[in-house]
């Protein structure tokens, strides 16, 4: 891998860009992110694309993404629960091969009760690797 592949970009390039897999980081809500396409990697202005994982037996904190939509494809694991709504009143099961859409501003919690890590390909219309997350601790005790 060249040093150029690791350098932050600004603005759009006049050519396609390859982004090599990078290290991971724990997001504020507790899931693990591995950014691919982002403002920091290629100068993206409206898109983030990367991998997101939730370890076996773990859950995220209650949170919302105020300014952007999120789309996910579950690529590995068994099954997770997505709790969503103003009071986290809806619970959906997500399995490998399922797509998930989370509208901007919708409170949600992901719970992985299985013994396998859950993996997702994720995209959102916020190009920053460290997205704007609003934690909602007042909702954390709702989800068992």
TrEMBL record:
Cupin type-2 domain: residues covered: 52-121
Q: Which SUPFAM superfamilies match?
A: RmlC-like cupins (SSF51182)
InterPro entries given in the database record: Cupin_2, RmlC-like_jellyroll, RmlC_Cupin_sf, UCP037087
Tell me where on the tree of life, at the top rank, the source sits: Bacteria
Q: Which UniProt keywords apply?
A: Isomerase
- Isomerase recorded as keyword: yes
GO: which molecular function terms? isomerase activity
Q: What is this protein called?
A: Putative mannose-6-phosphate isomerase
């Amino acid at each position: 891998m060249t040093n150029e592949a690791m350098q932050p970009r600004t603005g759009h390039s006049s050519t396609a860009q390859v982004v090599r897999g990078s290290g991971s980081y724990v997001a504020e809500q507790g899931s693990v992110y591995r950014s691919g396409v982002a403002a920091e990697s290629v100068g993206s202005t409206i898109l983030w694309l990367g991998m997101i994982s939730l370890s076996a037996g773990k859950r995220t904190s209650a949170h919302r993404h105020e300014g952007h939509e999120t789309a996910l494809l579950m690529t590995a694991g068994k099954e997770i629960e997505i709790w969503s709504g103003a009071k986290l009143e809806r619970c959906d099961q997500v399995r490998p091969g399922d797509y998930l859409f989370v509208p901007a501003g919708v409170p949600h919690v992901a719970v992985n009760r299985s013994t396998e890590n859950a993996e997702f390909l994720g995209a959102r219309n916020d190009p920053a690797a460290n997205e704007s997350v609003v934690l909602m601790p007042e909702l954390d005790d709702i989800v068992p």
